[in-house]
Automatic annotation (TrEMBL):
This is ELMO domain-containing protein. One of its GO terms (molecular function) is GTPase activator activity. InterPro entries: ELMO_dom, ELMO_domain-containing. It holds the Pfam family ELMO_CED12. GO terms for cellular component: membrane. It comes from Solea senegalensis. Residues 49-205 form the ELMO domain. It comes from the Eukaryota.
Length: 223
């Protein structure tokens, strides 16, 4: 302000606005580092916290069905590939699990609604695997800098991990609507439609006033 001869008396809002902008700019880099740290965390069956999270995910998505054992084919009912979900988190690490759990904790009805679509006999897809794939999409967009306008428009100050998780919720909910609308002939066409959805998102992100926000009221917002 001194360098540019900005006088606080004439423009009293400038200092506060500049401070907010600088927080947003530096905060984006800090957010990426936090997301990257979480992605590098490997799911461990020996970690009680990790185990509690995966079991909680089951309870939230399947509240009326008891998990028969920790290693079971039941995991396929929520979209994991094998008897043990930990093998599916290799690419995105704990970031993939935290996103899935955040969606179910904050939007339980919506998450169960999306899961019901994922289990559709004709248009179904692997809920958890697609969720981890969408986490990779969100991660790549963050890493490339494509999410700057979104966070600048939606967060007054430095964005935090919860804001990244909120973006994931938007992607998970919107992809489900997109998938059902497109009516793919087979899950084998997933990559094709995933890329199409990715392009839709990237187009939105080029809009100056972009805000990729799930408009439903979350559990936290209802409190």
């Amino acid at each position: 302000m001194k360098e540019k001869n900005v006088e606080p008396q004439k423009d009293p809002l400038f200092k506060e606005s500049l401070h907010t902008c600088l927080l947003q700019i530096t905060g984006y880099s800090s957010l990426y580092m936090s997301v990257e740290d979480l992605r590098k965390q490997v799911f461990s069956s020996e970690n009680g916290g990790h185990e509690a999270m995966i079991l909680k995910l089951w309870d939230l998505l399947m509240p009326n069905v008891k998990l028969e054992s920790r290693l079971t084919k039941q995991w396929g009912d929520i979209g994991f590939q094998g008897d043990d979900p930990k093998t599916d988190f290799r690419g995105m690490g704990m970031l993939g699990l935290v996103n899935l759990l955040f969606f179910s904790e904050n939007y339980p009805k919506e998450a169960q609604h999306v899961l019901s679509h994922a289990n559709h006999p004709k248009l179904g897809y692997s809920y958890a695997i697609v969720g981890i794939n969408l986490t990779e999409m969100a991660y790549s967009l963050l890493k490339s800098g494509a999410l700057k306008a979104h966070f600048y428009n939606t967060v007054k100050g430095a964005p935090e991990l919860q804001h990244f998780h909120q973006l994931y919720c938007y992607l998970a909910y919107e992809f489900d609507k997109f998938w059902l609308l497109e009516e793919p002939e087979s899950i084998m066409q997933f990559n094709q439609y995933r890329e199409k959805f990715h392009n839709v998102v990237k187009t939105h992100l080029q809009e100056p006033d972009v805000s990729l926000t799930l408009t439903l009221s979350s559990k936290n917002e209802r409190k």
